[in-house]
Design goal:
Layout (H helix, E strand, L loop, with lengths): L1 H51 L34 H4 L5 H12 L3 H24 L15
Helix pairs in contact: 1-4, 3-4
Length: about 150
């Protein structure tokens, strides 16, 4: 009976982890779909400008997450220059260049160390996202038709 109870606990943990992994994959696919939509809009704008013979519009700056209000409890001073986010905020947002930079700083030129740190950093980002999902600490884009106010 105790052995079966231990197996049940392990199976429940595996189901919970699979659920969190599915949530992480869903969020990643939603981000990819949004980026795809933005790329398609940019392509359509360029094709329209080419068809009309008008000059191409300047490239739009990438969307940045909204900054918290000053009276928000989550608003804290971060050790970054004005207008910059720290790596711990950029990595969970899917910034691959930040992840690569962190791994390079931690592992140096050692390829085995780079693989190890890449895996550890990926696990950290997945855990942060999963914890945010569990805590319902999600930030929705204010300009989105469905998720905005």
């Amino acid at each position: 009976m105790s052995r079966e109870a231990a197996v049940e606990v392990e199976l429940l943990k595996a189901v919970d982890k699979a659920g969190l992994d599915a949530d992480v994959a869903r969020i990643g696919s939603e981000h990819a779909a949004e980026e795809c939509r933005a790329a398609r809009m940019a392509l359509a704008t360029c094709e329209e400008a080419e068809r009309l013979g008008s000059p191409l519009p300047e490239a739009a700056a990438p969307a940045t997450p909204p900054k918290p209000a000053p009276d928000d409890e989550a608003a804290m001073e971060l050790p970054a220059a004005a207008g910059q986010d720290v790596a711990i905020l950029r990595a969970p947002a899917g910034d691959r260049a930040t992840m690569r930079s962190i791994v390079d700083r931690l592992a140096g030129s050692d390829p085995i160390g780079q693989r190890r740190w890449q895996l550890l950093m990926s696990d950290l980002v997945d855990a942060i996202i999963a914890r945010a999902i569990d805590a319902s600490a999600l930030t929705f884009p204010t300009g989105h038709v469905l998720w905005g106010p």
